[in-house]
């Protein structure tokens, strides 16, 4: 066999942790030290980084106004030939970067054929190779997902399409996706409903569509159990784009939907902060909300641009944001079997191949700093103590009864008659913010 072509020839075989490195040095980790133990766990285990296939290896830099700008050496030959080259490039990238997980859509790993059978054959062939590369390198699949939004057949939705024939196609595709997840040992499986929603209420039966979507998920649960697939199902909320009203608007809408249809024990959420901000919330909001309900499964670690109203999928570089996310993750005891997946793309103007490395290294370091900061916040316990004090009236007497759910309105009345007007207590927001900034 001919030696495997090297795609990232100028990049060292392993990106090193070099804590003293200066500002010019962007090809090393200054904060991410995979083996270092913090709060009883290695950084690698807390962070569980994953590289996404679609942006990093399929992205071309094309946007609605402009042609591709990114010339990638693996985009050569027939679609199947370039799928194979792309796979090798991807594994070279994972290994050099030192990341243990990757994520992909069925259609970004292998090209869609002209029939379902042909698409499945393509997927079989490429995932056979992926399985080999996984065992050679130790790199694993964080999650698989099915692309149920790009093909024209899905323009009116997949699981919520008004035509059951389209829903059936989506079901067949998910069946194969679950088989592939099992074959590759994926730890999670994601559903992102890009076209599950509507543009006009005039032509949409919302109640019917929601029920179909729930029944579709039920079929997936049944098939997963049938084939003995041991992975976590995740739903990824997003409010809009490409639809105007996506049903999976944000964390709370998805949790409500899952509970309404009795699906909550089978799913958790994959939160993408850029989607959270599109929903009008602040960066960390849905991570916190999902976690509060015990439903935070994984994070598509990216960021939007606060001054733009769309999914720009930028690499997360803001230490305040990564600190808040990591604080929530530590507080819930980690993300496993989920992880931090870089659903992020280099800008179409970042045209050098090395920019892919620089972007991932920068974002991994931003999360490593977030982790270190969050550990200091939690170990110091200052903010935690202030918060505990703020809610201390619920630890005894009437407050304790409210906490336990045994209090009555009559008791509330008796309490106020006895104790009169509550005293005004400062919320101390600026104090919290100043203390938080101390750790950043
Ligand atoms: C799109 C979504 C998508 C999912 C996987 O906005 O983020 O990339 O993560 O289908
Ligand atoms: Ni995503
Ligand atoms: Ni997105």
Structure report:
The protein has 440 residues and is α/β, with parallel strands linked by helices. The chain folds into 2 domains: 37-380, TIM Barrel, CATH 3.20.20; 395-439, no CATH class. The chain is built from 16 helices and 12 strands. Strands 3-4-5-6-8-10-11-12 form an 8-stranded parallel β-barrel, surrounded by 4 helices. Strands 1-2 form a two-stranded antiparallel ribbon. One nickel (II) ion is lined by residues 272, 274-275, 311, 313, 343.
Class from secondary-structure proportions: alpha/beta
* Oligomeric status: single chain
Strand content: 5-15%
Number of domains: 2
* CATH first level of the largest domain: Alpha Beta
What is the string of SSEs from the N terminus onward? EEHEHHEHHEHEEHEEHEHHEHEHHHHH
CATH homologous superfamily placement of the largest domain: Divalent-metal-dependent TIM barrel enzymes
- Unreliable sequence segments: none
Q: Which strand order do you get reading across the main beta sheet? A: 3-4-5-6-8-10-11-12
Which architecture of the largest domain does the CATH hierarchy give at level 2? Alpha-Beta Barrel
Helix content: 40-55%
Largest sheet: 8 strands, parallel, barrel
CATH topology of the largest domain: TIM Barrel
What small molecules does the structure contain? D-xylose, nickel (II) ion
Whole-number radius of gyration? 24 Å
Question: Got a strand count?
Answer: 12
Q: Tally the helices.
A: 16
> Span between N and C termini?
51 Å
Mean pLDDT: 97
| Backbone shape | globular
Organism: Stegastes partitus
EC number: 5.3.1.5
Family: Belongs to the xylose isomerase family.
GO molecular function, one term: xylose isomerase activity
